[in-house]
Design a protein that fits this description.
2 copies of one chain form a homodimer.
Chain A (H helix, E strand, L loop, with lengths): L8 E2 L21 E2 L2 H10 L3 E7 L2 E7 L1 E4 L2 E6 L2 H9 L3 E9 L4 E14 L2 H8 L14 E15 L5
Antiparallel strand pairs in A: 1-9, 2-9, 3-4, 3-7, 5-6, 6-9, 7-8, 8-9
């Protein structure tokens, strides 16, 4: 599996009417392009996603269990120093994927956006209602992080039957 | 789940005797540190992993199905232009993880190293024997990529029972 990201579903958070903009149903490699609603549904139902960002030129990746608040990806983490970096590092990516070993089909959804630590109770109270049980809370060290998307893209590949 | 990477199992590919060096069994957050053999076993058995690298300052992440050759991560992809970037971009990361919704336990293994496109038949013939069925081959566009690790780290978190 290798899912290119050259065709993308771009959204602007401040212009919700743009969210519905999607590209053609397949890209030039024949991969099915997932529409925004399908991307959001897969983001909502995936148990685990990966936060990816750049720290002093090197890629950093770590898994989190997450929730979706509107189109924002939210999660709790105790990884404070790293997320201070993420918050100031520009573009952050968040990835979920799935693989069916029976059909050998796979898919991937990638959110790109900016990360913010969220302290405002108007937001965190709402996040607390999302039913997220995060391991970061084991030692009571967790705080909320929001990734606000600039771009959401998804691809699915289904191998031809033999 | 949030798995810090501040304690790491470092290896040097040219000094195999260093590979066995592992850190303490738990890090300062109480997460269990996986030893190198355990990391390699989880890399070998994971169906899907994610390649992560930096392209013009932004994180790029895409899933692949992969195999392990010694301690190298190998996979096929048709994503040529992006991997040209990966090959010249310095550090590349490769991540696998797992999550058990019943026990709410999770783990993550991250390889950091350098990516190379592999053309030598002495290598590719061996890779061809690894039993990897890659979707990149659907259109016959795939070629082999190797990530040679400089560092392999793994963490596991098991929430306390309630």
């Amino acid at each position: 599996m290798s899912i290119p990201e050259d065709a993308r579903t771009s959204i602007r958070h401040d212009k919700p009417e743009d969210i519905a903009v999607t590209k053609t149903p397949t890209d030039h490699r024949g991969l099915r392009v997932l529409g925004l609603e399908e991307c959001l549904e897969r983001l909502r139902t995936a148990a685990v996603g990966r936060v990816v960002f750049v720290d002093t030129g090197e890629p950093v990746v770590f898994p989190v269990n997450h929730a979706i608040d509107g189109v924002d990806v939210v999660f709790r983490t105790s990884w404070g120093s790293k997320l201070d970096v993420a918050e100031s590092s520009g573009v952050v990516a968040f990835e979920v994927d799935g693989y069916d070993s029976l059909t050998e089909s796979g898919w991937s959804v990638v959110v790109k956006g900016t990360a913010q630590l969220v302290y405002e109770s108007a937001d965190t109270d709402r996040y607390d209602q999302l039913g997220l049980r995060s391991w970061a809370d084991i030692k009571g060290l967790g705080f909320w992080v929001r990734i606000r998307p600039v771009e959401i893209s998804g691809r699915e590949v289904i191998p031809p039957s033999e």
